[in-house]
Design a protein that fits this description.
The complex is a heterodimer of chains A (111) and B (351).
Chain A lengths: L2 E5 L14 E8 L6 E5 L5 H9 L16 E9 L2 E8 L5 H13 L1 E2 L1
Antiparallel strand pairs in A: 1-5, 2-3, 2-4, 3-6, 4-5
Chain B lengths: L1 E4 L2 H9 L6 H12 L6 E7 L5 E7 L3 E5 L9 E5 L8 H21 L11 E7 L6 E3 L4 E4 L13 H16 L6 H23 L9 E2 L14 E2 L8 E2 L3 E2 L15 H8 L1 H14 L7 H9 L9 H16 L4 H12 L11
Parallel strand pairs in B: 4-6, 6-8
Antiparallel strand pairs in B: 1-2, 2-3, 4-5, 7-8, 9-10, 11-12
Classes of the chains: A alpha+beta (111), B alpha+beta (351).
Bound molecules: zinc ion.
Chain lengths: 111, 351
């Protein structure tokens, strides 16, 4: 699974909507191949969200090469000036990943 | 005539029998027992014209359906094993019957004994997770969710879905196509092709009476849609305010570039799906007989894990030529099929 962790380039930093903390979760794949996504842009409890994001092992996402038709979770955490992204196979969506995704689904806007 | 699964103790007694009228049956039983690994076989007895007992051996499935009880722990609790009578739980019986129908297509039409060709047990788990909107193959077993009840119902309710999942196992053993981009879309398409053929074979449908739908009836009545995918008309299976429109392309000019879904494997499978439909439609009759045979031969032809659409198309043409002759109607149909979805093979010009 592709995983990247990088410092934000010019497109990621600066003013506009990109300057706020935002977390995007995209579920793709599955037998049906129907994608769904959820997003949060928290302000009040930003500290809690940042802690949840930082608890995730962004740099070491496991793979699942044998699975077919399972979901893939793309998770993007924008904490200006930094953008973290990870593609997490369903079987690896445990612990802090699962906690983060379930929280975003719970309070986030569905797209 | 009696057909059934013969327990090992009975096979052992039959094998030792010296009664002349049981000679054939004894030989068949000995043959079964000679296999090193435990192997299920169906022993069929009948009387020939001279009233001699005739015994015939054929492969039989070895199914175990487990209940996940709404958790994500695998495998769950076994609730119906091979030969057990039906239980009260519809999902269990649907999985059992669907795996049986899939085994039958591979065994009776293509002489393949289960997923690996060597009688691999068929293991399925139903009631996986809570409101889980999916079915999958995890490399070892088939797993089915109950659906959320709002958009999706039970994922065991269509033979095409069960055939699709089991075929992922067949492809894993036969070709190892990687699960990304074009080879991934081919992997998906092969599962749709044989998933559809499981249903067509079970219902004895022709190319014109078959629905060519994958997952018909999985959506609840609230959804504006008939199925997950249409092989005949990709992109037309659903168009719903909440789900959006079926995103499958029907030809190569509309191939979807995306990073999600492993490069759109469940989206771009529409292209080879329709190529198969076009081949089958042109040949007519039962799709599993010639079009399905060509695709099955191709699957076993030594495909590279990175095979793309054009190379796969060329391999189907080569498989058709090997089985039916270079100037056969089958080769012409295969070439027309790929041309019809805009995939050029072997210097053919795509339409
Ligand atoms: Zn699949």
């Amino acid at each position: 699974m592709a995983t990247s962790q990088r410092d934000a380039g010019p497109d990621d930093a600066g003013g506009g909507p990109g300057s706020r903390l935002s977390i995007l979760v995209v579920r793709s794949g599955g037998l049906a191949g129907i994608s769904q996504q959820w997003q949060v842009e928290p302000d009040a409890d930003a500290e809690d969200w940042i802690a949840m994001v930082q608890a995730c092992p962004w740099g070491s996402v496991g793979r699942d090469d044998a699975a077919r038709d399972r979901f893939t979770w793309r998770i993007e955490a924008r904490m200006p000036p930094r953008l973290r992204t990870a593609s997490v196979p369903e079987s690896e969506l445990v612990g802090p990943w699962r906690a983060l995704v379930e929280r975003v689904q719970e309070v986030g806007a569905r797209g | 005539m009696f057909t059934g699964i013969v327990p090992p103790y009975l096979l052992a007694r039959l094998a030792q029998s010296e009664a002349p009228e049981l000679h054939d049956a004894a030989m068949a039983a000995q043959k079964t027992l000679r296999h090193d690994e435990p192997r299920r076989a169906r022993l069929t007895f009948s009387l020939d014209a001279d009233h001699r007992l005739v015994a015939e051996l054929s492969d039989a499935p070895n199914r175990t359906i487990s209940d996940g009880h709404g958790t994500e722990a695998l495998p769950g609790t076994p609730v119906r094993r091979e030969g057990d009578p039906a239980v009260k739980d519809a999902a269990v019986n649907e999985a059992y019957d669907g795996l049986g129908a899939t085994f039958a297509l591979y065994s009776e039409v293509y002489a393949r004994n289960s997923i690996d060709g060597k009688g691999l047990p068929l293991d399925g788990t139903v009631h996986y997770g809570t409101g889980y909107d999916n079915a999958f193959w995890n490399g070892e077993r088939m797993v089915f969710g109950d659906g959320d009840g709002q958009v999706f119902g039970r994922f065991t309710s269509s033979f095409t879905v069960i055939g699709h999942e089991l075929t992922h196992g067949v492809t894993q053993y036969a070709a190892g196509l990687i699960y990304k981009d074009q080879p991934g879309a081919l992997n998906e398409s092969i599962s749709d092709v044989f998933g559809s053929l499981v249903e067509q074979y079970a219902k004895k449908q022709t190319v014109t009476t078959a629905s060519w739908l994958i997952g018909e009836g999985l959506f609840t009545k609230k959804v504006k849609g008939v199925a997950l995918r249409s092989m005949k008309a990709p992109g037309t299976a659903y168009d719903d305010p909440q789900l959006g429109k079926d995103p499958q392309p029907a030809d190569f000019a509309h191939y979807v570039q995306t990073a999600d879904d492993d490069g759109g494997v469940h989206i771009n499978s529409g292209i080879p799906n329709r190529a198969f439909y076009l081949v089958a439609h042109r040949l007519g009759g039962h799709a599993w007989e010639r079009a399905g045979r060509i695709w099955y031969d191709t699957l076993l032809s030594g495909l590279k894990p990175t095979t793309g659409f054009a190379a796969f198309g060329a391999a189907t043409a080569a498989a058709a030529a090997a089985r039916y002759g270079g100037s056969s109607a089958e080769v012409a149909a295969v070439r027309a099929g790929w041309s019809g979805v805009g995939v050029a093979i072997d210097g053919d010009v795509a339409a």
